[in-house]
Amino acid sequence: MNKIKAAVIGATGAVGQVFMWRLANHPWFEVEYITASAARVNHLYGSTVHWLLPFEMPSSIRGRVIDEFSIETMKERGVKIVFSALPANVAAEAEPLLRDNGFFVFSNASAMRYYDDVPILIPETNIETLSLIEQQGYPEKGFVVTNANCVTAGLAMSIAPFKKYGIKEIAVCSYQSVSGAGYPGLSSFDITDNCIPFIKGEEEKIEKEIKKILSIDPLVDVYCVRVPVMFGHLEAVWLTLEEELSLEQVKDEWDNFKEASHLPSTPINPVLYSAVDAFPQQKHAFWGEPQGMVVYTGRLKKRANKIGFVLLVNNLVKGAAGGSIQNAEAFVEKYKLLEN
Ligand SMILES: NC(=O)c1ccc[n+]([C@@H]2O[C@H](COP(=O)([O-])OP(=O)(O)OC[C@H]3O[C@@H](n4cnc5c(N)ncnc54)[C@H](OP(=O)(O)O)[C@@H]3O)[C@@H](O)[C@H]2O)c1
Questions:
Q1: 36 C-alpha to center of ligand 1: Å?
Q2: Which of 36, 39, 157, 241 is the most buried if burial means most Cβ atoms within 10 Å?
């Protein structure tokens, strides 16, 4: 099978590294082109990157050369899909340009998330919104598909099965790891032995995005807290439904929550509940198959029509690059790109 050629832009950042790791042996995509900031052009990836992931860098990516950002060269080298891990302000210029030049852009940046014709896609929860790319002009033109903010990704996955019971209110408090702020992120003076109960713009994003992704309009109350751990975001959630469910019904809904098409990046059980005490924890962030793609739930409680639970999402994998790759897989499958 001929793999589809892809570019990773922002390949040296926290999210970019996950793209490089997850794409190193991908069955459908091969990385043809990688970029970072201008100072790294022509440097070898393995020598210039500050590798953050808790396992070794794949040997096949060490010797890759960082390319200069050039639309023309990307076209000449046959790139079709662009995975974007750029900061929002840089993405705001680069992503429309890439789209206008016919590329299929899968982005982690918030720059274009709130455009009416740009989906915030999570294949398990709102696959129908992928067809918005046709409003952007596909197949004649390129498009941008975004994925959710990392906290929203975990929240949407864990509450999507309950949409049919009527979601009236969502109250959530997040405990977010430092990798969520990118590299180098926060000063060690600020975050060592400390929690910071404010992450600029984050609470607003979660409220806006959960409503767009699930097409619901509940009351949403959010507190976001930065905590001194490296990977994974925990969230303590209270969900108020129109109907009262038993704890068994809640567990069954998570057990039966599947994504229909079995994409390479979709776990068999995308939301896994465990009744084990004190689970989940951030030290489990890279558990699961594919690693980091499972959303874990635990600490289940109920009070009348409210259900309470704790979830863990890997902010860099399911909440970022892994989710983006899964979105590209959903696109390739729906529009049968591998068969053309
Ligand atoms: N971290 C998360 O958990 C997470 C989750 C979901 C979404 N996101 C979003 O994903 C994007 C990437 O986040 P991150 O955490 O990976 O950030 P990061 O660690 O700061 O990485 C940013 C990347 O963009 C490159 N870059 C920066 N300025 C550039 C410029 N002017 N021109 C070209 N390249 C430039 C950097 O290259 P250098 O290394 O050379 O500076 C690096 O490769 C952001 O939009 C973020 O909001 C992040």
A1: 9
A2: 157
Q: Please say whether the beta carbons of 19 and 321 come within 8 A.
A: yes
Pocket test for ligand 1, best of 31, 108, 176, 317 (most atoms within 8 A of CB): 108
Ligand 1 binding pocket includes 239 (Cβ within 6 Å): no
Q: In the structure, what pLDDT confidence band is assigned to residue 340 with cuts at 50, 70 and 90? A: low
Query: pLDDT digit string (tens) for 85-105?
Result: 999 999 999 999 999 999 999
Q: What is the CATH number of the domain that holds 9?
A: 3.40.50.720
241 & 298 share domain? yes
Catalytic residues, which ones?
150, 233
pLDDT digits (tens, 9 = 90+) for 168-191: 999 999 999 999 999 999 999 999
Specify whether 120 is located in the same domain as 185. no
Asked if residue 298 and residue 154 are part of one domain, the reply reads yes
Work out how many domains the chain is built from and give that number.
Answer: 2
How many angstroms is it from 164 CA to the middle of ligand 1? 36
Tokens representing 305 are 């029509």
As a whole number of angstroms, the distance between CA 6 and CA 111 comes to 21
Residues 136 and 207 in one domain: no
Domain span including residue 185: 150-314
Q: Which residues of 239-252 are buried (b: 16+ CB within 10 A; e: fewer)?
A: bbbeeebeeeebee
